[in-house]
Amino acid sequence: MSGVSTDPRVRRLFVEALGCKVSRVDAGTTAAPFARAASPAGADVVLLHGCAVTERALRDGRRAVRRLRRASPEATLVVSGCLAEDAAGGLAAMREVDLVVPLAARAGLGALLDARDAGLLPGKIAGDDGTRGAALFAMPAAGRAASALLDAGRTRAFLKIQDGCRRRCAFCIVPKLRGAERSALRADVADAVRALGASGVPEVVLTGIHLAAFGGSERDEGGLLALLDDLERDAPRCRVRLSSLEPMEAGVELAARVAASRVVVPHLHLPLQSGSASVLRRMRRGIVPSRYRALARAAVRANPRLHLATDLIAGFPGETDAEFEETLRFVEELPFASLHVFPFSPRAGTDAAAWHRESAVPARTVTERTRALRRLGDAKAASFAARASGTVADLVVLGGGRGLTDHYLDVGLRLPADDAVPGRRLAVRLAASPEDGTLEAHPC
């Protein structure tokens, strides 16, 4: 096997992660103890950390298994993540797969590989070795940034601080895969953010399966609001971004805190899924449209620069033309800066999948509704970007001549070479390009 380590004590690992930010963070921390291979062909171990949130994600995961095996025919191929949690038996039956590691066992991957090499595993599926707690949250120590938390360009760190979900949305399989809600210790999170900032990381993104529930259900720590207060009192050197928050649990107080913060950037992602009260009830989202409307308007009123984003599902089972029109009108009237629109996809094991068999919206109608919402999203995004032209923003330089503003605009760079270095954070002036009107960052 050309290029692969022959030293049994040293394993070079190639990792591929599919799915959400939490999945990618989990993949990075699982792979952190290993030397890294640049490609599957040079790896002793290939780790696929897969997603299982939709049927398409399951298919993509299996295709990735076959692709990675072709690229690295002699490596040990390991599958982890929600994909392994949901489809362990099916994955173990694939001849390409050597080891399936459920979420509860992933912290001990090195020991599991040792046991497999010694012939001590009874099958391809690893059991829970009691390391779930150790695997759940990986916090960098003071003065030492955890490389596993950094994105590919090493410009932002993704810090997982919460896992699990107690909600039971009708279309979602995640609570069955991730289990009960658990949170990192608030003090550990605050220390980790400060350590990452001190090491030169310009932005830390706080992530979780149900981030708004951080700290609240397990201990009397005050939850996410108290964490933000800690960071405000002793500000890190980096800026902080919150990933997706359940709207009704986030609440007006948290939205106001984000809008006014000197540490947390003005960006709120509040998943809606539908603007129709009747569809929301069938989805079991727990969202009251009037309360969502008040929350969204209050946040943007408190800070007009705030980027308000949401998720929408088009064609939920039984969605009528009138219910879809409710969603369109609801979204039109609110100050969204971006929409993430998905056509409904039935996920086996959920109530919505059973309803889909009985009252599916025709595929052509789903496509038309998806396109209509995406057109609306494009218009909202263009309007938000136009309002930003001529203003000053806090920018983190990414790779490829791009930058990300504090209010979540991806912009081109018109900066001196010394400033256009990935990971650099600086104040810039935004202006529309005379060629195509897209936003560009210029020196202040």
List descriptors.
single chain; 444 residues; alpha/beta; Rossmann fold; pyruvate-formate lyase- activating enzyme; OB fold (Dihydrolipoamide Acetyltransferase, E2P); 3 domains; five-stranded parallel β-sheet; five-stranded mixed β-barrel; 15 helices; 19% strand; globular; disordered N terminus
Structural account:
- It is built from 15 helices and 17 strands.
- The model is unreliable at 1-9 and 129-135 (pLDDT under 50).
- Helix 13 (321-333) packs parallel to helix 15 (363-388).
- It has 3 domains: 12-133, Rossmann fold, CATH 3.40.50.12160; 136-386, pyruvate-formate lyase- activating enzyme (Alpha-Beta Horseshoe), CATH 3.80.30.20; 392-443, OB fold (Dihydrolipoamide Acetyltransferase, E2P) (Beta Barrel), CATH 2.40.50.
- The chain has 444 residues and is α/β, with parallel strands linked by helices.
- It is globular and about 65 Å long.
- A 5-stranded parallel beta sheet has the order 2-1-3-4-5, with helices on both faces.
Total of DSSP H or I helical runs spanning 4+ residues: 15
What's the CATH architecture name of the largest domain? Answer: Alpha-Beta Horseshoe
What number is the mean pLDDT? Answer: 89
Main sheet properties:
5 strands, parallel
Question: What Rg is obtained from the alpha carbons, in whole angstroms?
Answer: 23 Å
Might you state the CATH topology name of the largest domain?
pyruvate-formate lyase- activating enzyme
CATH homologous superfamily name of the largest domain? tm_1862 like domain
Tell me, briefly, the overall form: globular
